[in-house]
Amino acid sequence: MQRLIHSLSELKDKKIAIVGLGKSGISLVKLLATFGAKLIVNDKKKEKEIDEDLSYLSNKVYKIFGGGHPPEAFSEAELIVVSPGVPLSTPSIVSAIYNGIPVIGEIELSWEILNILKSDIKIIGITGSNGKSTTSTLVYEFLKKDGKKVALAGNIGFPMAEVVYEIYRGQIDIDYLVLELSSFQLEGIKNFKVHSAAILNITPDHMDRYSGMKEYIEAKAKIFQNQGGDDFLILNMDDKNTVSSIEYLRNIYLKKGKLPHVFYFSRLQKVYGAFLENDTVRFHVREELSEDIKKEMENTVLPVNSFKIKGVHNIENIMAASLLAFSAGCRGEAIKGVLTEFPGLPHRMELVREIEGVSYINDSKGTNVDAVAKSLESFPGNVILIAGGRDKDSDFTILKDIVQKKVKALILIGEASQKIANALGEVVQHYFEKDMKSAVIKAKNIATQGDVVLLSPGCASFDMFRNFEHRGDVFKEIVNSL
Question: Do 387 and 412 contact (CB within 8 A), yes or no?
């Protein structure tokens, strides 16, 4: 596929519309302004708010359109770059595509520029419905421990455009870039290519944005659409939707040629890649690998009891992260060293405190039903589950069996409370509470020694909180005040 940009000089005076002014949008404005592009900035915010956000760059911006995404915002654009939060199905975006204006995402444009600046940087991309941030951070920590020059960016909160800007300015020098990639980010790629890719899992999520699972799976599968025979692809053998993405892979390579090296990870069976056997992660290699990679994989054994980070889903994350690290030439000793020290990320199965024999766990990042199921799997039972928030058109009936086995009581908050009660109310005692404080107090009153109070909402946070971090912080603050 033909690249959109062949030299940085092409950006000078090019009219580029940036749609969406979140972190990635602001980083793009800063990056493109450096090369003299004529920037058209568009966001749902009012023009005055946009102007304030870009006050230090206001003289670099050609035009501002606020209050939505009107067609006139793109009438002069030669290229449109859409932030992940703005669906490509937005009518004015669809119209622009119909009129022949190239429409891409921040990841694509950042990659195009990076390829001009330093084309030999190896990109490691991680996507999946759950576990992306933990796996991306683990890969970053593995490579850093191994002495490699590496950066971490993407959906984890530090835009790729910011990394590219820092490389251009000579502020950082890296050989590897680890990217956490959401399906929203992958929608906007065309030529973007990763050296090593992983799909951790694909479970129903964001069904308020996609027409169905097929469209969602194909968005995730775009992570490997430009890989070649020297690249690596890591897939979860235990996840049926991830395995189904292989069909998408075959369809691509019927036209393109050689497949990347494909590895799997599994908790349930021995596979080429990483597998769990007797509470130990082991590795099974393919013959076509380089001798160095084969040696490291064959000689690395990871006992689960040596991991500081807990939870069955984190065993999967560790297997995926290890395979990605091996593909980048990482030593097994570096992986082992990190796993004995890495405590996990905030808001992901985070132990807040223990009170009178009751453990309080913050899993605010559990924003879909599969994440809740994986969290519940990590406990033998006696869980008091706090759930609810803004529904993403989820099917909560999927949780019936595990809730019946593991959950002692269900405490519901937020917009989705009644929907969850309708789905699960027959199998567990449930309570409705008006806010997080009353939910935590209710949980404390119900709990007895040996119980677990788990915040794993299965929903987005935006009905009551700014984001999942804010929700988790409020939960921790209340628990710590008990």
Answer: yes
Enter the DSSP assignment of 450. Answer: T
- In Å, how far are 43, 356, 368, 407, 452 from 380, measured between CA atoms? 47, 19, 21, 10, 10
Taking alpha carbons only, the member of 260, 277, 280, 259 closest to residue 268 is: 277
Beta pairing class for 358-362 and 350-355: antiparallel
- Considering the chain, tell me which residue range(s) the CATH 3.90.190.20 domain(s) occupy: 350-481
User: What's the mean pLDDT in 335-349?
Assistant: 93
Tokens of 96: 């622009």
Higher pLDDT, 251 or 39: 39
- The alpha helices in 290-435, defined as continuous H runs, are 291-298, 312-327, 332-339, 369-377, 400-406, 417-424
Q: State pLDDT tens for residues 348-407.
A: 889 999 999 999 999 999 999 989 998 999 899 999 999 999 998 899 999 999 999 999
Residues of the chain with CATH 3.40.50.720: 11-101
| pLDDT, tens digit, 9 for 90 and up, residues 427-441 | 999 999 999 999 999
CATH architecture of 108-339: 3-Layer(aba) Sandwich (3.40)
Q: Which tokens is 361 given?
A: 């766990």
Torsion, CA 133, CA 138, CA 144, CA 145, rounded to 10: 160
| pLDDT at 51 (0 to 100) | 86
Global pTM value: 0.89
- Is the CATH code 3.40.50.720 the one for domain 11-101? yes
Q: What is the mean pLDDT of residues 325-332?
A: 97
Q: What angle do CA 427, 463, 241 make, to 5 degrees?
A: 60
The answer on pLDDT for 198 being more than 60 is yes
Q: How far is CA 428 from CA 282, 369, 403, 422, 425, in A?
A: 38, 16, 7, 11, 6
At 257, the pLDDT band (50, 70, 90 cuts) reads low
Tokens representing residue 187 in the block = 């929608």
With a cut of 80, say whether residue 58 has pLDDT above it: no
**CB neighbour list of residue 222: distance below 8 Å, 6 or more residues apart:** 186, 187, 189
* 125-165-191 Cα angle (round to 5): 40
Assigned CATH class of 350-481: alpha beta
CA–CA separation, 411 and 420 (whole Å): 10
